[in-house]
Amino acid sequence: MSSPSPAEIAADRLRDAAATGIPCEPVRDLLRADDSAAGYAAQEINTRRALSAGRRLIGRKIGLTSRAVQAQLGVSEPDYGMLFADMAIADGEEIDIGRLLQPKIEGEIAFRLKSDLPDPDITPSELSAAIDCAFAALEVVDSRVAGWDIRLADTIADNASSGLFVLGSTPCRLDSFDHRLCGMVLERRGEPVSVGAGAACLGNPLTATLWLARRMATVARPLKAGDIILSGALGPMVAVQPGDHFELRVNGVGSVRTSFSRRTN
Q: How far is residue 80's CA from residue 77's CA, in Å, rounded to a whole number?
């Protein structure tokens, strides 16, 4: 029997951390810290495991859309992760904080597709025509790596540091808001804790989504009608504490709310 590859060992380490609720050491000791290909290889292993276990793939998330974060990690493009049906939380629903290891939250714009996107050379106009609607969205990011001690390969292997997500209840048309200039405010218990705008997401959330659509077609996991796309953060992410209540408002798009349960002994 052949020895497991570094990607398989990394995938096992992250899977075990998720299963036990105990954060693990970084996986960059197995995968070079800046090796995105190795990170995606580990991510794909756990994606296939999830699908084999019956989890449903319903979309993607885009990470590293902030130029400042890209500079911090020494990269020049975003990354992506998988969205499964069991990661979706209803607007206003309380989240069991015990489902998460080290949660943080950020405000985004999400898109839902009405058409498949199979072509790696999809154009911006084709992308716009394929989008059914947009939502205000909260992404609850999480890390299986202890202390969020991550580099590029760590976060990619860890499904782009995904956790859960919440979509607003009211979808809006793509032409009903300014994608680049729409303002965002995220409040915790009524106090603003993160502000931003569409331009913070690679200059425009549609630019990030176009990158994703092309990349997904290239790696043979093309986006499909009905898929949800979390297009990337519009402002800084915020640490979550038990008992927190958050509300996100995005100009022209709408609002979305969630809260987190208190830990019990």
A: 10
Spell out the domains of the chain, with CATH numbers in brackets.
Answer: 6-260 (3.90.850.10)
pTM: 0.95
Residue type, 171: P
∠ Cα 231 232 237 (to 5°): 150
Instruction: Give me the count of residues in the chain.
Output: 265
- Cα–Cα dist 160/164, whole Å: 12
Residue type, 13: R
Diameter over CA atoms, the chain: 58
pLDDT by residue (tens digit) across 172-197? Answer: 999 999 999 999 999 999 999 999 99
What is the distance in angstroms between the CA of the first residue and the CA of the last residue of the chain? 44
Give the burial string for 190-222 (b: 16+ CB within 10 Å, else e): eeebbebbbbbbbebbbbbbbbbbbbbbeeeeb
Cβ distance 32 to 38 under 8 Å? yes
